[in-house]
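Hi everyone, sorry if this is the wrong subforum. Our group has a chain we'd like a structural model of before ordering constructs, and none of us has done structure prediction before. Sequence below.
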Amino acid sequence: MPDTKDHIVSSFDKELRTIHEIIIRMGGMAENQLAEAVDALVQRDSAKAELVRAEDAKIDALEEELESAVVQLIALRQPVANDLRAVISALKISSDLERIGDYAKNIAKRSIAINQMPPQKSVTSIMRMSRLVQEIVKDTLDAFSNSDKDRAIDVWHRDEEVDEMYTSLFRELLTYMMEDPRNISACTHMLFIAKNIERMGDHATNIAETIYYLSTGARLEGKRPKGDRTSFQVLSPNSDAPDNNDSEIEI
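Answer:
Right subforum, don't worry. Here is the predicted structure as tokens:
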């Protein structure tokens, strides 16, 4: 007769694997959504942007599926110690991935509006920033798949690079707006897109912290590296800009 305890352990492991697989699927979809949303912006492809918006519902559905699986597992198995840590970590990671998907949807929505306007020079900078965040999200998912705390620490530190790129892009866009008021509408949309991408990096960093905790049972020590200086930006209007004066603009 099969050992009942062995059967319970086997079933529990299977349920944990199911939760792990959902996380991997959500991560792959979120990563792809970011790539597709930025492609829609660069290619001025509103049809692709609409597809990105529609696909977000699939990530939401996976998050709900994971939540149901976690609730059922806790109710039936009552996990403790490392097992409970794994289950709670899965909930936190799925929430961060769902938010990454939401930000991709927001980028797609704004790209549809931007596509009705003249092409923007800052699209190239947006593309570079998005590629960096895509790499970070991919490395985060690899760290999760392999329970690699060292890779998670590397991701944690790379968020500062994203912040620095965002600060540079923020300044670039404000300069365009000051040079010509006709740029204000499009550049405002681009500012929101840049912020969405920066927030994706923050959520990837959240996941990295969770992976480290999952692997070690301890929190990452020290303050999270940050390179966002947009709250302290001070710009002087370009001398060739309309309505030039000697004042400075603080954002």
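For your construct planning: The longest helix spans residues 4-43. The CA atoms of residues 74 and 84 lie 8 Å apart.
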